[in-house]
Design goal:
By secondary structure, this protein is mostly helical. It has ten helices and no strands. It is rod-shaped and about 100 Å long.
Amino acid sequence: MVEKGRFESVDADLAPPSIMRRISWGAIFAGTTAAIAVVLLLELLGTAIGAATINPLQGRSPGLGLAVGAAIWFVASCMIALFIGGWIAGRLAGIPNKLDGALHGFVTWALTSLALVYLVSTAAGGLLGGAGSLLGQTASLAGRGAQAATPAVTGIVAQATGITPQQVQTEAGEFARDPNFQAFVAGVVKNGQVTPQDRQALVNLLVNRRRMSPEEASATINRWQSQIEQGAQQAKQAAAAAATAAASGIAKGAFGSFCALLLGLVTALVGGQAGTPKLLPPRAALDTRIAA
């Protein structure tokens, strides 16, 4: 015959999940810590293997292959680590409910993702290998595109001689740094027009220093203007192409990061459900306790 105290102890242990705690932060932090540690472990292993196998003398762009391989390894490492972290969180939570286990895996994924983003944005990101820098490269791609476009568009007037075709600069010679010549170039680049005063000042400069006739000076200026307009148009097209490439790179990087995070989320949910402890049927649990 079973004592009354033992029945009360069994009944307390078999309390339904609805009156138990629904979240265990200790289990979540344990799963997050384990996931980060596994990522670091696998990334160090991948970096060691990649550095040992790459041969910079083979292939046209061995660095590109290493970057792609590192990115794939990084995503695979995160998935493995998140599954382990979700499993640990679901198991240590001790809640015999698949949904609760999955939710513990979800929170573990969220904390791990935030921690990894912080790591790859600081000096500690070096421990994550070459693939971790892809996040930083994606973020800075827009800045590089803007820097490439700025000298070609907004900096044209401030640095007028920088966009002047080499042929024009060669013919101008010592005039290339003259304020009258720079004002002429700036007017052409800015709006395709030159004020009569700037044009006449340049004509006088050529007449007085090059001993040209006014007609020859005017013809030379017309030819320079045509060549400078063509160079400015090419620079604007190059800036537009750089901006388009930057936008495309940002879009691809953002979509790739989204897919990687989504895969990690699914993996953590599956790990949390897999780690959920099973609840014995009440009668079977009672028989087990009585037999003990």
